Amino acid sequence: MGLRERLINKMTPDGGISVDDALNLLARGGVLVDVRGLKEYESGHVPGARLVDVRALAENVMDAVYEGDPFAEPDKTIVLICDTGLRSGHAVKMVRDQGFTCEFVDGGLVAWRDAGQILIPGPPRKRI
User: In this predicted model, what pLDDT tens digit does every residue of 28-38 receive, in sequence order?
Assistant: First the structure.
């Protein structure tokens, strides 16, 4: 394990969920939120993941994640993901502090790929 991996492991909060647990939450209607930057997202993301800026989450989770969707189900679990779990792990508290149920994928997209799950390249889908 290199220095980068050791630092990430040391700085990532405890309490993340496994890829399998994330998939189960998503199958039950959870919402997957990618908190990376646009270029990172475009290089490869989980199908169906919503790209949301962490600063927007801090301001108003409902607006950032659901963008005024009248059919939004805010009682569903929000699952955060980033490259390694570091950014998403730190963002969980701000989402929970606004009254939402939130988890993050331990190991992020690295764990996602290691679990054999796919990533697709391309820009975020436009909301109609």
Answer: 999 999 999 99
